[in-house]
Amino acid sequence: MKAxxxxxxxxxxxxxxxxxxxxxxxxxxxxxxxxxIVKGAHPDxxxxxxxxxVMLDQGRDLTxxxxxxxKLGLLQRSTCPxxxxxxxxxxxxxGITLTDKVSKDxxxxxxxxxxxxxxxxxxxxxxxxKLRND
Length: 134
Description:
- By secondary structure, this protein is mostly helical.
- The protein has a single domain (2-132), classed as Orthogonal Bundle (Arc Repressor Mutant, subunit A).
- The protein is 66% helix and 7% strand.
- It is built from six helices and two strands, in the order H-H-H-H-E-E-H-H.
- It has a two-stranded antiparallel sheet.
- Strand 1 and strand 2 form a beta hairpin.
- The longest helix has 23 residues, at 2-24.
- The protein is globular.
């Protein structure tokens, strides 16, 4: 189907341009997604299971992503005080600062490629929803 090929081509072009924004900050799109999820729960901790529930790319190795973000000083991992089998993940101040900077740059990027009016954007969104739903 021509529309599906066009969708893949457009997604690839978008992802390449978006990757440049993340590269500027030394992270990947998947790292940013994890940071946004954990920041959204801040100041509360988040379990890895909760992160996986809402990740955009659920096929990724969450442990590896979190390890990298901990190593960069953007997240902290600790054992839950009330359940020693559970891991708690919190965002650091550096993580909050970076997430805010990346969000600002992503919004600038999105504004620069916004070629659709409100009606067209709504129609495209509805069509994409229709494609995903059986």
